[in-house]
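Question:
Write out your own:
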Amino acid sequence: MSVQEKPGIVRNPTRTVSIGNTAIGSQHPIAVQSMTATRTQDIDATVRQIQDLVAAGADVVRVAIDSQKDAEALMEIRKQVTGNLSVDLQENYRLAEVIAPYVDKIRYNPGHLYHHEKTRPWQDKVRYLVQVARDNDCAMRVGVNCGSVDPDVKSRFDEHDSISPMLESAWEHCNVLDDMGFHRYCVSLKDSDPSKVVEVNRRFAEKRPDVPLHLGVTEAGMPPDGIIKTRIAFEQLISRGIGDTIRVSLTVPNNRKSEEISAGRAILDDIAAGRVRSVVDYGLSTLNIISCPSCSRVENEAFVELAEQVRDMTRYALDHRITIAVMGCRVNGPGETDDADLGLWCGPTHVNFKRGKETLGAFPYDAILPRLKAELDDLIDRKSAT
């Protein structure tokens, strides 16, 4: 039994969006996606990973590019793999016209449109992307992330309100796409907190039930915690008919990336079979470690090992309501650690360390754990004293 056949679940009446040889939308099965974690320019490794993901049942595989060399590598990769490919444009939206002939879907982040041609209105950049998508028979995804929201939109809201800026940005981009007569798009609104993922997607769907939604909990972390966090959000949304494609974002080594697909399909099977847990407020009084999925943006593969070391080292603090974020790259790391009590985002040789929004410095990989423990102990002491 699929989710749409489960009695009591009425899927939102979203439009159909074709992505290569698959389609998402209310009458189609919920598609399961993943993203490569290899360096895109490592063609052989990326080909192997795409093949593994497709063999595991991935309906769409996303690959990130951030340079002309990345784009050229993806052109060669396309020749060697089957499956539907989505390109993540990262910070250089102009690469769309270079790579679009080789992929089935273009994903852009509204907050990242400001990195190039800063004086050009974002609306013009979206119009350019739409034309590229039309010319090359590509679908599109508007990918809104909690840590990289459009800065102009973010400035209109209270700094403690993370959900309204995401919604406003998504709705604005939908309006521009609709005004252009382009409807072959979906939207994602992601946060590392499952409760926020539920709220932001629920509110979006109330206003735009016609737009297909890509669901995911960003930086969900390592298994099994990352799967549990994702399950919490998916069960609450899909049981309400919200969601047309999903990704389970896990911090795992490259050779285990296909676990994202198996985890996603297991969650969908459980929901279809009625094995849905009663979910309460996720804000438990316990330690919360968030970590981003390993992907091709990671500049040092030691990031995955570091995330595991942080989890192991901090077990003594499990009973304290403290959030530690471990991010793998410079793209989302700086912003997506802001809401954590302690944040680490990883560069090629050093780990950048933050206390909330305050930068504490950059430390070698072999020196960061003692520094983290000292800050964690100090934070526990200060919280205990209040």
The chain has twelve helices and 15 strands.
